[in-house]
Amino acid sequence: MGFLLSKSMDANLKNQQEFMLHNSRLQLERQILMQSQMRERQMAMQIAWSREVLKYFGTFFTLATVGLTVGALKRKKPVLLAPIVPFGFILAYQMDSAYGTLIYRMKGEAESIMASEQDRLDLPHGTPTFESIEKTRRARSSLASFLEK
Question: Would the pTM count as exceeding 0.85?
């Protein structure tokens, strides 16, 4: 009788372990999807921000270029056209950021760094472990209780 009860409990335990593994896998998949969606939304906001900045800077660049050109022609001082060059570089960067391939080039460079320069990505003191986090938590909690007294 004890053997049958034990066998039934072992089967039940195995079923529970499989259920827990399945649930933890589902939870991990959901977390990965959520993080991916959050990253996509943040990137979309960043691109939208770049496009908005481009609108304002493009307007400024146009007005500045027209004004500097008119001023240079009226005063016959071509040196007044000098600010157009750095403003042009800024405008080109903003256009590349908002509508160009900058994001793809950055992604490619990031992948290259991850593949060939892994040592640059190491965190100081390595990756946090459960033990290091617990040690810090205990130190802070004992410090907090000490300060309250």
Answer: no
